[in-house]
Amino acid sequence: MSLDLINDLLAGQDLIFRLVLIVLISLYGLFALIVAIQISNLNKSLNQIGFSPIFNALTIIHFFAALALLVYAVISL
Amino acid sequence: MPEEKSGEFIINNAGGAPVTVEAEPIKSSPHFYSNLLFHPENVIFQNQEGDEEIVLLVRRDLITNLPWILSAVALIFVPPLIAIFSSLFTPFFNLSGETQIIITLFYYIIIFGFILIQFATWYFNIGLVTNVRVIDIDVSGILNKHISETRLNIIEDVSYVQIGSIRTIFDYGDVIMQTAGTQPNFEFDRSPEPARIARIIADMIGGSR
Predict the structure, then answer these.
(1) Which residues of A make CB contacts under 8 Å with B?
(2) ipTM score of the complex?
(3) Less CB within 10 Å around the terminal CB: N or C of chain B?
(4) What does the alpha-carbon distance between residue B164 and residue B62 come to, in Å, rounded to a whole number?
């Protein structure tokens, strides 16, 4: 019985990897959102007017990239 | 290297002693990689008072970013190396092409996040000297922020420390400001041109008394 279970797991490792990836990407997306919010707050503490909007844009792109990857990972299941 | 131009003109009166006229300080244009700015323009900070102007903006020397930059560059080349040696892993892992693409993209997003956080830690770790006070903003780990400030007239002494060959070659060190009484000392660590910064602050605290 245990051998059958191990065989089933090894046969479906792609699915297991995908599920683990989806969980990890979700957690990372949350982290990316926190980073974007924190950098936006830090830009209010020190505002270098020429660069702050660019920096904010980069953090938002980072968050949306994680989000897009999560959507792709879920859709392609 | 920021250019500091003289703020004085000497006018020769006919037959009289030369008169020194102080010109307006020349402002520096900040870039995202600027680590030392004199009278920077288009830079504002929280709780800035109406008549308060930034005289010095100090960040850690650019060379202090080298370790994480090299790490990021090395990490960028890891997926291609794994792809080259992938035949060693195939007996144990048998993943579809799509899953491998998702893993690779996720890996590069993490690298991008690592670069963002390391840059933000350097960018927001800043020392500001205004015509009124000194402000030290310390950011560690992106989620921890510590801001301390003191008035210029409380600073009693300013000195700098430059130890080691690397710091001497790249001309960066720690600028230490001693405050009166039980107030904690201020430190701009790994600042570029520490001698110049110390001289400017010393001139300012001399003038504020």
Answers:
(1) 13-14, 17-18, 21, 24-25, 28, 31-32, 34-35, 38-39, 42, 44-51, 54-55, 58-59, 62, 65-66, 69, 72-73, 76
(2) 0.88
(3) C
(4) 17
Report the distance separating Cα B59 and Cα B54, nearest Å: 14
* Chain A contact set for B94 (CB, 8 A): 13-14
| DSSP-assigned letter for residue B89 | T
For residue B46, give the nearest of A45, A59, A66 by CB distance: A45
Rounded Cα distance between B193 and B196, Å, is 6
Low-confidence ranges of chain A (pLDDT < 70): 1-2, 5-6, 8-10
**Number of helices (H), then strands (E), in chain B:** 5, 11
- If one counts every other C-beta atom within 10 angstroms of the C-beta of residue A11, the result is 10
Q: Which residues pair with B130 in a beta bridge?
A: B54
Give the global pTM.
0.84
